[in-house]
Design goal:
Length: 502
């Protein structure tokens, strides 16, 4: 199967020239059938509406996916999405045998999903999601702009006229000028607690000509409504952007799990609501490094070294998130444990002012947010008898206490069960003779680490880095989404420690 290169063009354009017949080079017959259902009639001019996928199939490959055969799944890129087959032995008659990826979430959160609960962290994409790709206006939002709004949840706003706005920096506001377009919320989605505007609700539920079993019939284009888009992950926001070379065009934007919907009141009928070219954007971000944030303009008097320094130097987004450091890295003990929907790390050390101690557990949720708790577990304390399902683990000691008692943050509900025993990297501060300190053997035994090979921590202006030890070789970046400093950290990312001692 020949692969096709996917260049990046304007959002309003198409990646490939429109074919005169059904295009070839589909990676799988199932991909072709999904495309034929909605887009073949658009392509041959039978109907006047926007594409659901795009005029022709693009680049195809097998990408990492833990639950797929041999840890892979078949994917093919289109202008407006990426088709996937996660289980080639599944029921081919099931409409969800072919799915399209959670590309919007990945671009906004800055992570590549490599399994049901596995992610490779990168950077939120600073790619214009609803305008020409040369639009650099301050009012033009990117995928990264929506980081400030996708974590929230809302009450029903059905019937409310939409005047909310968002700009490139992710700042939201309200402008009554947009009420003249009379767009109102029409549906409240309880699954994600977000509202859907009437224009998008009508688009997602529209019926029209489709191709089914080789015949043209009338049916719903999306069935169910979230088939192509997934659920909404934020409210809808107005912006003033550049489209087809015209500046200051009003566009309503709403991100969904798998697509981005836009409504342009001044566009021709049949094209006012469209799905953005997220397939183009994601491909360029994943394979060409598009959308990297610019390195911060600030010059630091002190910069980190070794593993911390390499992560800081290699990732401009880390520099922007953390700012400058004001101290040397310090050796600490770091415990870590994986869960179904996130991780926990425990940082223990005597490095505070006047020799004060520090024991803090950071709960790292899979959506990129975090909560911190003091580790006040007393060694030797009895553990509740909570049996995990087969193949999973009940967290114990400090992790178990936070997991059970962190009700305000719904820690147990949000994390699920542990998927592996905790790993402990013991730091000796100051170095002491004798064996590595041990913990009472309650529950799964932590993975031991030789003496002196502990974790490390370093504070920065807007957050901190934590090295989880030589077994995991992971560096965690903990920071404040709003840049308020180390006392208000609420987000996280993780990177492989690739530093090699000279």
């Amino acid at each position: 199967m020949a692969a096709m290169t996917l260049p990046v063009l304007m959002t309003t354009g198409s990646t490939f020239a429109a074919p005169a017949r059904v295009p070839g080079n589909f990676a799988d017959e199932a991909f072709k059938n999904v495309w034929m259902r909605t887009d073949s009639l658009v392509d041959n001019g039978t109907v006047k509406r926007s594409y659901f996928w795009g005029p022709v199939p693009g680049f195809t490959t097998s990408e990492d996916y833990a639950e797929g055969p041999n840890g892979k799944h078949l994917v093919q890129y289109f202008d407006k999405s990426r088709m996937e087959i996660n289980n080639p032995n599944g029921d081919k008659s099931n409409p969800f045998y072919v799915t399209n990826g959670l590309l919007t979430e990945e671009l906004i959160y800055g992570r590549i999903q490599t399994g049901n609960n596995k992610y490779e962290f990168r950077y939120p994409a600073e790619i214009d999601l609803a305008s020409d790709n040369d639009d650099t206006g301050a009012g033009t939002p990117t995928y990264a702009s929506f980081r400030s709004v996708v974590y929230g949840q809302n009450q029903s706003r059905v019937g409310e006229t939409i005047a909310d706005t968002i700009n490139r920096l992710g700042f939201v506001g309200s402008d009554n000028v947009y009420t003249s377009y009379s767009v109102k919320y029409a549906y409240y989605e309880p699954a994600t607690k977000h509202n859907i505007p009437d224009k998008f609700w009508a688009f997602l539920n529209q019926s029209g000509p489709i191709v089914q079993d080789g015949k043209t019939v009338n049916a719903k284009l999306n069935d169910p409504y979230f088939y192509a888009t997934g659920y909404p992950i934020a409210e809808a926001y107005w912006a003033s952007v550049k489209i087809a070379g015209v500046n200051n065009v009003a566009v309503l934007i709403q991100p969904y799990e798998r697509r981005v919907l836009t409504y342009v009141p001044t566009a021709p009928e049949g094209f006012k609501v469209q799905m953005g070219n997220i397939g183009q954007h994601y491909y360029a971000w994943r394979y060409s490094g598009a959308g990297k944030p610019k390195p911060p303009a600030v010059r630091c008097q002190r910069t980190p070294i070794r593993g911390f320094g390499k992560v800081w130097a290699d990732h401009p987004e880390v520099q922007g998130e953390l700012g400058c450091t004001y101290e040397d890295e310090r050796v600490v003990t770091v415990a870590q444990q994986y869960f179904e929907h996130g991780q926990m790390i425990d940082v223990i050390g005597n490095y505070g002012y006047y020799g004060s101690g520090y024991k803090t557990i950071y709960v790292l949720f899979e959506d990129g947010t975090l909560q911190s708790f003091p580790d006040n577990f007393v060694d030797g304390s009895p553990e509740p008898n909570i049996q995990a399902p087969p193949g999973l683990y009940t967290p114990v000691r400090g992790f178990g206490k936070v997991w059970r008692e962190g009700t305000g943050a719904r820690v147990r509900e949000r994390l699920g069960w542990a998927t592996a025993p905790e790993t402990v990297a013991v730091g000796q501060i100051p170095p002491v003779p004798g064996p590595v300190p041990t913990v009472a053997p309650v529950g799964p035994t932590p993975t031991p680490v030789p003496p002196g090979l502990g974790g490390a921590i370093q504070h920065f202006d807007k957050g901190l880095m934590v090295f989880a030890g030589p077994v995991l070789k992971k560096i965690y970046v903990l920071y404040s989404e709003h840049g308020y400093g180390t006392y208000d950290i609420d987000h996280w990312a993780v990177y492989n420690d690739t530093y090699v001692e000279p």
